Every structure is written in C-alpha cells, then in structure tokens.
C-alpha cells in the first residue's frame, strides 16, 4: 500500500473524533500529548486499571485485556491507514493494553512495585533493547499484520517488565 505523505491528515482533536477507531487507537485522547504520548498513555493505563481492577474478577480482567487487544488491532489498522503512517507515535492504545497486562499479573502490589513496573515498561517500550527491538521490526507495515505489529513489541515489553521484576524478587 502506498500513501502520498502530502495527504496525511493532521493528528489533532478533529482527527481523534472523526472515527471511533481513531478515538480508541489514540488512547481516548492521550496520544495527542505533544510530549511523550506513550508515557501519557501508560499513565492513563495505570490510573484506569486502578479504577476498574477491584470491580472485575481476574478472568474478567483477562477478558477485558483480550477484547481491548482485538478492538485495538482493528482501530490501529484503520487509524494507520487513514494517516498513511505504519506506526505513529500517537497510537498509544497498545501501551494501554500491554500495561494493563502487566498490572493484571502484578496486582495486588504496592505502589512502589507498580511504579517500578511502570518505569521498567517505559524503558523497554521506549529504548527497545532486545528482544523488544526485534519484536518492533517483525510485523511492520499496514493492514492486519502491521496492526498486530504495533501491539507485539508492547506485549514483549510487558513480558520483559514482568521477567525483570520476577528476577528482582528472586534475587532480593
């Protein structure tokens, strides 16, 4: 698929509200942050998880993450095609869902453990050390493959976050 970059829409509130997929993939607006939209999206994920996790069973939480991933892939596919950008930084629903997965497996935990998880997740997602960097490159492009690719590296970052935290608990 080839896109004319001169036809790329501006990512703003008008774009956010022009299609339900944009609203979802842009993290309900958090992706519009002019600085560090992935971090803002992850912060929103943290706060929103704290608001809902006590009201859902563990199985319901897992179902929420699964459905949010499916809906997120659909919304990422549409949004990236409308933008003509394969993995725009404003698409942050992937950070939201992946960090929900971290918190789902981490909770209940102290604020300090949640903060460490947040910092580790942001490190893995932003710096993309192996294997996250590899995961970021595996499914590049548009369509369903590219949409899944947007999520894949974040789920690998979530796995790395939990792995490092488990090692830390084991060592300390």
What would you say this structure looks like, in words?
By secondary structure, this protein is mainly α. It contains 8 helices and no strands. It has helices at residues 13-17, 20-25, 37-52, 58-83, 93-106, 111-127, 132-138, 143-171. Helix 3 (37-52) crosses helix 5 and helix 5 (93-106) packs antiparallel against helix 6 (111-127). The longest helix is centred in the last third of the chain and has 29 residues, at 143-171. The N and C termini lie far apart (50 Å).
Short summary of the structure?
With 172 residues, the protein is mostly helical.
Task: Provide tags for this entry.
8 helices, mainly alpha, globular, disordered N terminus
Distance between the termini: 50 Å
Estimated share of beta-strand residues: under 5%
Number of helices: 8
Radius of gyration: 16 Å
- Indicate the mean pLDDT: 94
Shape: globular
Return residue spans where pLDDT drops below 50 for at least 5 consecutive residues.
Answer: 1-5
Structural class: mainly alpha
Order of helices and strands: HHHHHHHH
The main pleated sheet reads as: none
Question: How is this fold's topology laid out?
Answer:
Blueprint lengths: L12 H5 L2 H6 L11 H16 L5 H26 L9 H14 L4 H17 L4 H7 L4 H29 L1
């Amino acid at each position: 698929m080839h896109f004319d970059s001169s036809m790329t829409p501006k990512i703003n509130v008008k774009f956010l509200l022009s299609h339900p997929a944009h609203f979802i993939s842009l993290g309900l607006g958090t992706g519009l942050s002019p600085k560090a939209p992935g971090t803002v999206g992850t912060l929103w994920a943290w706060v929103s998880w704290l608001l809902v996790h006590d009201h859902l069973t563990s199985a319901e939480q897992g179902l929420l993450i699964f459905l949010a991933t499916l809906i997120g892939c659909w919304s990422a596919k549409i949004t990236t095609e409308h933008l003509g950008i394969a993995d725009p930084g404003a698409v942050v629903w992937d950070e939201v869902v992946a960090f929900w997965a971290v918190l789902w497996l981490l909770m209940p935990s102290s604020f300090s453990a949640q903060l460490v998880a947040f910092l580790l997740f942001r490190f893995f997602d932003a710096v993309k050390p192996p294997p996250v960097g590899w995961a970021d490159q595996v499914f590049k492009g548009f369509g369903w493959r590219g949409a899944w690719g947007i999520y894949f590296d974040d789920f690998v970052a979530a796995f790395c976050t939990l792995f490092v935290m488990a090692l830390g608990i084991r060592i300390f």
